[in-house]
Each structure stands twice: as structure tokens, then as C-alpha cells.
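S., here's the first fold you wanted:
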Amino acid sequence: MAIQVPTELLDGCVLGVLTRQDFYGYALTQEVRQRLPISESTLYPVLRRLKKNGWLTTYDEPFRGRNRRYYRLTRTGQAQLTVIRAEWGDFSQAVTTLLEGDQQDD
């Protein structure tokens, strides 16, 4: 089942994966899909937008007579990931507090 992941969180997930290594499109999609149930077609528009924002750069490598397009995190992308991580931490903590309810009376 595919779920709707907020845009900024999906951006952060892609940028986070790319901190480990460069990935070509299909492999990157599979890497994200191991953790989030998103459709395969979801990630390519995200990658185009992240590249347009200057957060990713691309290069092509030959593979079995074809080219694979690899995505690499830029310094600007790393800075954006830092912002997203901080925002996620605040958001996650607030949601956890709300989900747990008033634990002080227990």
C-alpha cells in the first residue's frame, strides 16, 4: 500500500540516503521503498525538483551498453538536509507528545 508522504519529508529521506553514497534512479527508488511504501513513479519528480533546487547533481555512467544516471548530494543539499532534520526532530517530538496524551496523571 502506497502512502502520502509529505513533500519535505520525502525530500529529506532522499537527501539522507544520498549521504551514504551516490545512487542511480532505480536503485535509489528501491532503497527508499525498503522503508516507505511509496510508488515507483513518486521519486522521479522529486529527483527532478531536488536537482532544480541545486540540492542534487547528476552524472551518467555506462552500464551494459546503456547509461545510468547517478544522483549526488551537493553542499547545498547537505545544508538543506540539516534544516529538514532539525524541523523533523521538533515535529516528531510534538507528535509523540500528542500521541502519548497526558502521561503525568498516571
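And the second, which I think is the more interesting of the pair:
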Amino acid sequence: MTLVTVDDIRAARELLRDVVVPTPMIRSRVLSEAIGGPVLLKCENLQRTGSFKIRGAYVRIARLTDAERARGVVAASAGNHAQGVALAASMLGCKATVFMPAGAPLPKVAATRGYGAEVIFPGPTVDECLIAAEDHARRSGAVLIHPFDHRDVIAGQATIGLEILEQCPDVRTVVGSVGGGGLMSGIAAALKGVAKETGGHDVKIVGAQAKRAAAFPASLAAGRPTRVEIEPTMADGIAVGRPGDLTFDVFTHLVDAVVTVTEESISQALLLCLERAKQVVEPAGAAGVAALLEHSYAVRTPVVVLLSGGNIDPLLLSKVLRHGLAGAGRYLVVRCRLKDRPGALVTLLGELAELGVNVLDVVHERVAARLHVEEAEVLMHLETRGSDHSEDVIGRLRAKGYTLTLS
């Protein structure tokens, strides 16, 4: 295996000097208190194009020959790599064609087109897009800019590792999201490489995959890159069915652990980032925070957690936030049976007001096959102060004689 070296990464950083912004690192008090040591958030969601992907895409395209750039470039992406390739190509004066999954978030599609790329939708998954992009490259002569499995791409992403060492020299663990593995491969190469070069302390590298799209654990167990069946996940940006050959080798040698996170943890992580850190993060970008919530035992402090992207559809954001609020016990959907008589609904709402509940939505149904003639049913969306408050509300309503069904 030929690893990306520290010299490769420093050369990539020089290429990117006037292209990317050194993103800030902020301390998270709530996460620090939760795990008993300093936790800092590396905010690549504030990078140009809204994610780290511009780093690897620009380095890869900048190192093409003039003749190669004249043929154009092609990429496959759920959105962030698409935007990185589109912007890099426009800056370097070459045509970009990007294959994106059908149903890709509209803001990501619009941004990719806004940077000048042609967008094509060949199928529902990133893997299908990659196959289509490879076929386009063979037919047209365009250069494929792989989203993760290329040395130049890894070297570009690795520049984040150099920034981490400058911003938090005593870092002991770095946690970040993993799809194909380019981001954490690069960061591992940077941190482990600098430690070896300088005799510095070792830094633990932990990758986080969505449980519904977790190719690395199966591949590491098998000893080779292995394709897995991807289930629907809100973390579309890391829904990759097979690790790259190069990234798999780097993970085998340099990455200390790969953990999986649930959809519930991802939504709660996204909510935490928004509420407590004031950072808008997409689900894939919050996977590292989700890993800390689920697997704090796997880290040594100080910990740096990567917020790898912030490109989230506002409609998805509203759904995920409700999901996160529900997971935190702050959002209840309740069906309540009551007598179909004047004042019954007003009485119920009065009970909720006394309990300090915010009623977000009410649907009052009086005629349905499941209801007796003298019954009505109310579907309510309720906002509470947390799990204890929710349990108190449910208990007190049942004690008043109401029949409740939780959705």
C-alpha cells in the first residue's frame, strides 16, 4: 500500500491556500459535560459549497493536465461532492458533468447547476450514479473525479487534519462521518503521519457510519471491500454501499475504529448542533456527533468532532427536527378518545394548558367506523419540556379518564 504522505498533504494545502477557508473550531459545552472532557466541533459545514468536498475535488482537478481538463470532468454524488466538483471545475475552466441520485435534495441540485455543471439523474443510489459516471467517462473521454477513492482527493481532504493539529494541538481523538472513507482516510494520514514525523502523541481516529448504510464494518470483518445492501437513511451523503480499494487499505492501517449510529441518534445530533452549537448541519454531517452520543466509551479527550457538511433541504430539516424532538421526549403525537358532547374538547385543551403543554396541531374527528356514536377522537401534536414532562402529561391525562394512543 502507498499511503498519502504528509508531504502530499502539505502540497495539497498549498494548492488550496486561496481556494478554501480554514474553518473554525468551537467548543461544545453540552458534549464536554456529557463525556467528561473537552469536545470541540470542527465546522466544515461553514466551508465553501457547505462541506469539505471542495478540498479534494479542487486538488484532483488542479493536478490534471491541460489536455485532460479540456476533455472535461465527470462525477457521481448525492450532492456535496457534486458541488465541490462543479465549483472546482468552474474555477479551473473545465466542463463538469455530475450524476446525482433521483430524489437528491433540491438545494444541492440547484447549487450544483448554479456552479455551472450539467446534472443527470441515472437512478436512486450513489452507487448507480458512480456506474453511470464511469460509463460516461469511457464514452466521452472525460476524467472521472471519484468522490473518495483517489490519492489526490484523499490528500485534499487530509488538509483538515493539519488544521485540526494547529487549532487543537493536544487532540487525542478525532471522530467523523464515513461514506466511502475519503475524509477519515485523509485525516488519519495527516494526524498519524505528523505524529510519526515529529515523535508526537498518537491520535485515535474513529469513523461513524449510518447503521442503515454501514459497508466498512462488514468489509473490515471480511478483510476486503465488501458491498452491502443500503437501507433508506436520512444521512444520504454517506450512503455508500462499498468502500473504495484505496480507502479500505488506509482504514485497515490507520483508522482505529468504525462505529455505527442509528437514525434516532443522527436526528438528536442534528438537533443538538442546531440548538446548542448554533450550527446548521445535514444528517450525514452530524454522524460524528451521533457517534459521540452513542459511543462515548470509544474516545479519549480532548475530542474533535467533524461537522462535515451543512447542505440540508429545509423541508428535510423540519422533519428531522421533529424526529429529534420526539426522540428527546419533547414532541408527542397522541390520539385521545373523549365524549362527543359540547365542551369536551375545550376541557381537554384546558387540561393540557394547565400541564404546560404547547398544542401545535389538533384534528377533531367525530364520525368514523372505529368510534362509538357517543365518542370523538382528537389527534394532537404536542410540544413538551422533555421526557419526564411527557410522562407526567400522559399519566395525568389517563388519570382523568382519557383513553390515549401514542403515535
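Why I say that: The radius of gyration is 24 Å. The chain has 16 helices and 14 strands.

Talk tomorrow,
H.
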